[in-house]
Write a structure and sequence with these properties.
The structure is a homodimer. Chain A is of the alpha+beta class. The first copy, chain A, has a domain of about 120 residues: Sandwich (Jelly Rolls), CATH 2.60.120.10. Chain A contains 9 helices and 8 strands. In chain A, the strands form 2 sheets. In chain A, strands 1-8-3-6 form a 4-stranded antiparallel sheet. In chain A, a hairpin with a 2-residue loop joins strand 4 and strand 5. In chain A, helix 2 runs antiparallel to helix 4 and helix 8 crosses helix 9. The longest helix of chain A is centred in the last third of the chain and has 25 residues. The relative contact order of chain A is 0.17. At the A-B interface, helix 3 and helix 5 of A face helix 3 and helix 5 of B. Chain A binds a DNA duplex through helix 9. Chains A, B: InterPro entries: cNMP-bd_dom (IPR000595), cNMP-bd_dom_sf (IPR018490), RmlC-like_jellyroll (IPR014710). Chains A, B: It comes from Sphingobacterium tabacisoli. Chains A, B: This is Crp/Fnr family transcriptional regulator. Chains A, B: Pfam families: cNMP_binding.
DNA sequence: AACATTTTTTGATGTATATCAAAATCAACT
DNA sequence: AGTTGATTTTGATATACATCAAAAAATGTT
């Protein structure tokens, strides 16, 4: 089954008509390691699911890349900003491994919301779950030391550490790679 | 007009039946400065609006209070966590001025979502807007220095500074009051 | 107005993390 | 297996911010 539909069904009921409509608008494609999904400011991003693969979201600050999150299999993600404002995201999304992707564009999603208002319950649940995740992330950045943030990451997304290099992890944690190296040495 | 309804209408259409149902479930009350709205873990929080007043949300860390956000007039807020999970928030909410409040409980809100599914569009929009705000907050904590975070606060919520003491502001920014004082001195 | 309480500022010193430079290790390719 | 480039670690030093203590200023109360 289309993994977007599979993810949607975790949040609420989907009529078979809505399911068919989503099916017809789902894009399926493959990307190579280092490819970009979205160039910031170019394309409206959308919700998507990795059947297989790994991605990072990042933006530029003083010419340097800053990672904001990582995505693995069996998650639904995308930028909320374009869904909410209909404007492009400032985030770039890059594949860190060869990946198989199912995606739905913002335009299609908004049309689906119009045609099948029942989808708004699922959209609400997804946005609410993202709020909870972002709240935890803010608190972690607000009060935890570098080493505590690293421990939190190990606890919450342990598999990431074996798939992503330490430079990317350090950037996500908001510290330098040197500091992360020293933290790991204990 | 009931300011909860007023806020809801900023996000989408509300049928007159739904409006009446919300009206009937809205609680209206007054609170004194220093009162608490919710004690964490006790009561399920809800969406609410300040007709007049000022609040802070905070939690405890190592016995000390840490502020997570402030709320003023003409905003809708509450913790998403209880709405999403139906479990109490870890946050405490305290009034920083004598306040007039309109509120709707999580139980009532969830019943309204069931009775008037159209409300899910509004709920989705609200959650999506909160996502955008939380994303900005995370980025601020991720990459900005103490002084930059202070400047961002001045830019985004200038009126807060004249209504809230510097201890509360410093806690919100994730720095000590002494550091904030030195930042302000330039 | 005088006193008590709260809030803000100042000073001295300590600590976590950044920066810069280089070495060591690992991975990829021929 | 040897060479090249990427990743990770190590060392020396700098900086932003914390901590502790106290003074100064502002605010509230009788």
């Amino acid at each position: 089954m289309n993994p977007i539909i599979q993810q949607f069904k975790r949040y609420g009921f989907l009529s078979s008509e809505a399911e068919t409509a989503i099916e017809g608008r789902t894009k399926h494609f493959f990307k190579k390691k280092h490819d970009h999904f979205l160039k910031s400011g170019q394309v409206l991003s959308s919700y998507f699911v990795l059947e297989k693969g790994l991605i990072r979201a990042y933006f530029y600050r003083d010419g340097k890349e800053v990672n904001t999150w990582f995505g693995e299999e069996n998650q639904i993600f995308g930028s909320i900003l374009p869904v909410y404002t209909n404007r492009p995201s400032f985030e770039n999304i890059q594949f860190l491994e060869d990946s198989e992707v199912y995606a739905i564009s913002v335009e299609d999603l908004n049309e689906l919301y119009r045609m099948y208002p029942e989808l708004n319950l699922i959209g609400r649940k997804i946005a609410e779950e993202v709020c909870v995740i972002l709240e935890e992330r803010s608190i972690s950045l607000h009060i935890e030391s570098a080493s505590e943030r690293y421990q939190s990451l190990i606890r919450l997304q342990p598999r990431l550490l074996s798939r992503i290099n330490l430079g990317h992890i350090a950037s996500y944690l908001g510290i330098t790679q040197e500091t992360l190296s020293r933290i790991r040495r204990y």
